[in-house]
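Same chain as my last thread, 127 residues:
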Amino acid sequence: MVRAKLISTEGPYLEAVIEVEGRRFCVMDEFSVAASAPKPGQEFELEFGQCLDDEEEWETIFSGNPEGHIKLEQIQGWRYRAFGKIIGVDPVVVDCGIFRVEDVVYSSDPRLIGEPVAFVISRLGAC
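reply #2:
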């Protein structure tokens, strides 16, 4: 769970802007459906959810982060380029800073731990 501040929302399952650790993110609003949904300006606990671009090739993922960054870069709306490092395998877990993503690639090879990767998040959600 992450502490966030709601900046704005277009409603359930539409775009919302939240602030986490001083950074703003555009996300799919999966939290406004709750009876206790936050109002703009309120802080609340949330979990990120990611819908990955499943068309991305292994070579692109492993060659896209030669500097070893751990961050998110917004492409457009709730679409992001994620940069991180593999911290576990079987399932593969990538540390992207404010959250971790599972199953970016599939492997049980422990030699992947520590490898930098980059991949597209087609839809960053928050619930």
